[in-house]
Amino acid sequence: MLTALTGTQPTGQATSAETSTADVASAAETGTSSLTSQGSEQCTGSAANVAGDPGGDDGGGGFTPDAAAVATAIAFAEQQIGKPYVFGGAGPDSWDCSGLTMVAYQAAGVDIGEHSVSAQVVTMKTEGRLLPFSDRERGDLIFWIGPSGGFPHVAIYLGHDTILAAPTVGENVKIQPLWSTPDEQLYGMVGRPTGTP
Questions:
Q1: Ordered per-residue pLDDT tens for the chain, 197 residues
Q2: Which residues face 141 on adjacent strands?
Q3: In whole angstroms, what is the distance from residue 130 CA to residue 118 CA?
Q4: For residue 41, which of 88, 77, 83 has the smallest C-alpha distance?
Q5: 3-state DSSP call for residue 21?
Q6: Which SUPFAM superfamilies match (predicted)?
């Protein structure tokens, strides 16, 4: 269980492009992808350490990720460290959160969905790739959920409570600790883009 949030800093602005969890579940059940046309969500939030990490860094739960594909995606994302966040950015000189995750996994030959957090959640759900947060492993997609039920942010999990992300306006792509705020909380599921469900 996630507890003891510390180090809260001011957050960025929320986006109107959030999609509700009910919409994601509905799209996944019906096999539609109408959510994918909504565009990118602005990635917001602030770093706050999350105490009580239950593990899941190596050998979490669920199915085994493809180590080579994960390594390729993370290596690509690491090469983007220091480049600025720009809403709607999908490289090569600037990134937003879902653009970074999308292109990093494309570099590994893996389709995780279109350039929006909601589309990536829908793709993971539709393909049976959502797993409990406690089962997270290196390379998994970490999602945040907003107060309206939308998905404002995504990052690549590196293990040991760290992520690689394009955080928000005014920040650069970076490695940072897992964080959660009252307005953007860690979603209870992670996406595992690789491996066989």
A1: 232 222 332 233 333 333 444 444 443 333 333 332 233 344 444 333 333 333 444 555 789 999 999 999 999 999 999 999 999 999 999 999 999 999 999 999 999 999 999 999 999 999 999 999 999 999 999 999 999 999 999 999 999 999 999 999 999 999 999 999 999 999 999 999 999 98
A2: 156, 191
A3: 13
A4: 88
A5: helix
A6: Cysteine proteinases
Domains in the chain, please, with CATH? 18-191 (3.90.1720.10)
Total-model pTM: 0.76
Instruction: Report the Cα–Cα distance between both ends of the chain, in Å, rounded.
Output: 24
Query: What b-and-e string marks burial along 69-97, b requiring 16 or more CB atoms within 10 Å of the CB?
Result: bbebbbebbeebeebebebebbbeebbbb
What is the amino acid identity at position 59? G
42: its two tokens: 């602005």
Spatial distance between the Cα atoms of 121 and 102, rounded to a whole number of angstroms: 12
Strands (E), the chain: 3-6, 49-51, 130-132, 141-145, 153-159, 162-165, 174-177, 185-191
